[in-house]
């Protein structure tokens, strides 16, 4: 008579036993809807950050190639008028646009100087020279903003992702307490699923945040370096114009 009783008791214990997760995938599939939502959002943010990382990397690589080509073409022109005519034929690039914007504004102040047969010379007034520098500064700011577009999104992802992981941690801990209250015991089988959910969301949040923050710091430095190079080129352009007697 005792053997059937033990058998029924064992079956009831097996039926009451919580699900056993043998892999992280099983854990994600068996997690609560709130945890799945957090993991899905964090994964989307991570994919978005990697897309931005690749896109910005290609963009700065293209900007570097365009700058080298422009400088090589500029080095073949001994005079500013010849450099201006060569720059017009080149594809649009930040250095090209800055160069053309500055000389186009100068052509409005001194008509005919940039023409092939132009020989006019006329010193700019202090007000006109200051206006020329403001035009160059405005174009530099425009190119800087274009190069830095969407870089701040990497910082946003880097800040938000750990907070989502923390939210998942809180939800997992809450599930652990619910498991304790439901099972009436604090053994490992009652708290393990909730703790595992908490750890998974924390790891996923950090995995999304770390690359995004590292990329943000890198590209923010590249934007600052790019702006400094444009400012240096603008000053070089003003000096070239002064050397040829255009100012």
Structure notes:
- By secondary structure, the chain is an all-alpha fold.
- It has one domain (39-113, 123-243).
- The chain has eight helices and no strands.
- α3 runs antiparallel to α7 and α3 runs parallel beside α8 (188-243).
- The protein starts with a helix and ends with a helix.
- The model is unreliable at 1-18 (pLDDT under 50).
What Rg, in angstroms, do the CA atoms define? 32 Å
Total number of strands:
0
Share of residues in helices: over 70%
Treating each run of at least 4 consecutive H or I residues as one helix, how many helices? 8
Q: Whole-Å distance between the termini?
A: 112 Å
| Count of distinct structural domains | 1
Main structural class: mainly alpha
Specify the overall morphology: rod-shaped
- Order of H and E elements: HHHHHHHH
* Beta-strand proportion: under 5%
Low-pLDDT stretches are 1-18
Q: Let me know the largest β-sheet.
A: none
Overall pLDDT: 82
Q: What oligomerization state is this entry in?
A: single chain
């Amino acid at each position: 008579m005792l053997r059937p009783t033990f058998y029924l008791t064992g079956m009831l214990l097996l039926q009451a036993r919580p699900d056993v997760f043998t892999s992280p995938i099983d854990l994600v599939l068996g997690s609560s809807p709130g945890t799945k939502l957090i993991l899905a959002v964090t994964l989307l943010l991570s994919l978005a950050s990697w897309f931005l990382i690749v896109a910005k990397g290609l963009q700065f690589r293209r900007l570097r190639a365009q700058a080298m080509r422009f400088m090589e073409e500029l080095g073949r022109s001994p005079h500013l008028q010849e450099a201006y005519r060569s720059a017009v034929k080149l594809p649009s690039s930040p250095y090209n646009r800055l160069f053309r914007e500055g000389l186009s504004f100068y052509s409005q102040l001194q008509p005919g100087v940039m023409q092939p047969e132009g020989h006019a010379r006329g010193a700019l007034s202090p007000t006109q020279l200051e206006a020329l520098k403001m035009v160059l500064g405005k174009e530099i700011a425009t190119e800087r903003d274009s190069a830095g577009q969407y870089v701040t999104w990497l910082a946003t992802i880097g800040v938000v992702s750990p907070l989502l992981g923390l939210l998942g941690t809180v939800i997992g801990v809450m599930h652990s307490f619910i498991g304790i209250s439901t099972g009436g015991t604090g053994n490992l089988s009652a708290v393990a699923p909730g703790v595992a959910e908490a750890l998974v969301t924390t790891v996923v949040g950090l995995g999304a945040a770390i690359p995004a923050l590292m990329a943000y710091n890198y590209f923010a430095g590249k934007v600052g370096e790019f702006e400094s190079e444009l400012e240096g080129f603008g000053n070089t352009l003003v000096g070239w114009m002064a050397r040829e007697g255009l100012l």
